[in-house]
Design brief:
The chain is mainly β. It contains 2 helices and 8 strands, in the order E-E-E-H-E-E-H-E-E-E. The N and C termini lie far apart (49 Å).
């Protein structure tokens, strides 16, 4: 119906590294990620414009959707809501276009159903949702919810793309001055393999040979 939306998550490399620092005020489509009318990426003349239910929404809902470069030419985001008035079934055969900071179309991809894609790719996404209090924690916070990690890249270029929805967290995070406070308001994967023994939790887990800091 007219209230239908797409909830977008993405992880991209090779994007315009100036997105996030360039002044794109008034630059149409700059640093954008949009579903377009077209159904294939082989013919620019058929790509068309942004795809949404124009009868329900006269204003383009894709106009404000942009990415911000981080770690050079990479960018990721999750749970971005675009109220298009179209179902996923209606947009499934359309194309996704990525723009640079000038608004130019620089990349194009068709879409496939996530289940089909995940059956062909390894490894599967990881999810943490069975939270218990940290063994040495004696405070009143009781965190619930879930955190998901998907992998992109391979070898030393591997990264985790994290999405999370949590309740019971410290309500001062976001307003408290945490400058210089190690690990404050953090979410981290640690070396440990169980939550029952604080002595084995270890520190943050990453490839220290590839990234010493």
């Amino acid at each position: 119906g007219a209230d239908s939306m797409q909830v977008m998550s993405f992880s991209l490399s090779g994007i315009d590294s100036s997105c996030g620092t360039a002044n794109i005020t008034g630059v149409a489509n700059a640093c954008g990620i949009h579903i377009h009318l077209g159904k294939n990426c082989s013919d620019a003349s058929t790509a068309g414009g942004h795809y949404w239910n124009t009868d329900a929404f006269p204003t383009d809902p894709w106009a404000s959707i942009i990415y911000v470069a981080s770690y050079g030419d990479s960018s990721s985001g999750s749970d971005i809501e675009i109220v298009t008035g179209l179902s996923n079934a209606q947009v499934a055969d359309r194309i996704v276009v990525v723009h640079d900071a000038t608004g130019a179309r620089v990349a194009c991809s068709p879409m496939v159903e996530m289940q089909e894609q995940r059956e062909e790719e390894e490894p599967a996404a990881l999810k943490a949702s069975e939270f218990v209090a940290y063994p040495t924690y004696t405070g009143n916070l009781a965190v619930t919810g879930s955190i998901e990690f998907e992998q992109t890249g391979t070898g030393a270029d591997s990264m985790q793309v994290m999405s999370f929805s949590l309740s019971g967290i410290d309500s001062s995070c976001g307003t408290a001055n945490i400058t210089g406070v190690a690990n404050a308001c953090g979410i981290h994967i640690h070396l440990g393999k169980n939550c029952s023994d604080a002595s084995t939790a270890g520190g943050h887990y990453w490839n220290m040979d590839a990234f010493p800091k």
